[in-house]
Amino acid sequence: MTETLHIVGGGMAGSEAAWQAANAGIQVVIHEMRPKVKTFAHQTGNLAEMVCSNSFRSDDDEANAVGLLHWEMRAANGLIINTADKHALPAGSALAVDRDPFAETVTATLLAHPNISVDYEEITELPDDGHWIIATGPLTSSALGEAIAMETGADALAFFDAIAPIVYADSINTDITWLQSRYDKGDTEENRKAYLNCPMTKDQYEAFIDALLDAEKTEFHEGETAGYFDGCLPIEVMAERGRETLRFGPMKPVGLTNAHKPDDKPYAVVQLRRDNALGTLLNIVGFQTKMKYGAQTKVFKMIPGLEDANFARLGGIHRNTFLNSPTLLDGQMRLKSRPNIRFSGQITGVEGYVESAAMGLLAGRYAAAEISGTALNVPPPETAVGSLVHHITGGAEAKTFQPMNVNFGLFPPADAKAGRKNRKTRYKAYTDRAKVAWQAWLDGE
Questions:
Q1: DSSP element (H, E) containing 312
Q2: pLDDT above 70 (res 156)
């Protein structure tokens, strides 16, 4: 095999695409501009660096679409999910990851592969020939972004992705807080105590909302619009939608009992989750924000237990660009106007680490098959991977296309005898069907 696959971007999607293609015998070059060219959000030059949350979300493969996606990626020998498993942290029923060792392991694994090399230079133009996958993610460089916009004949769509703050664990007042996963979820005692909880009374909550609404926020540049993705809304934007919104979102008090005052029901609860294996860093769950740094420190120290908190990282906000994929990409994720180029990951309009890696997995397999001169069918829409690729390459309404997490609404309806009332049984009908279809697709390659 003399033809080489070039992958632009070494994030979740690019790393997974490289792994899948290289394991199929294809020579791969990953073009990663970091650390020479930095971005707003990245801190290192590692491949697959986690810049936002450290959670891969639910790991329940029987009743959750994200957990099903985990299962499918494991069945396909996915690098990202297997590395996440190696560096998993207690997180109840979710899969949370020790972010630095995770990225270091992905980087070392790819660099050790005999079919993979990395070129640390920025790609600024769309290539005219060769086999390429563009997986530059939400922080595509301005030069490449302009080249993509010129080629597609339309402005790239954009929304804003916000980053949650990280707190040093030893600066938290544990006389007020307690450890418990909501509804005591988890198979082990460690997982059942995977979250640190900060309780609020009604008065404390109201004062917090007032401060949040009054805090100084990051200004947008002229011509930018704040089209946030609903799964990653800044907390102040949620508060603007109604004073009780946060109590029914990341600050909901349900499923928790205050270990210090068992009979005292909190009005609201802020949760923190371990961000590294040592447990020295905790991120504030769901607290992505666009407040300015000074305001963040003041507002977050109003949270009971965080009065003296020290922050390893404050929240931030960055532009996240993506294609109108239903109009621009074919069923094999190729750019219709330049079929030698595939797009993968968040730039295609999927949202989340797992979804991005899954699209990288598929793009890498598509490219490897094409280079090898074989055909690879699109995964069935009954599968999690298949539902996503069908959505972004034609299933979504182009006029209203927005980034999407995997969810059962993207799947063809399943025949569940329990009907609509028993969600667990109904969702298991989806996952059972998907596992059979996914394994058949893998076996048919």
A1: strand 311-313
A2: no
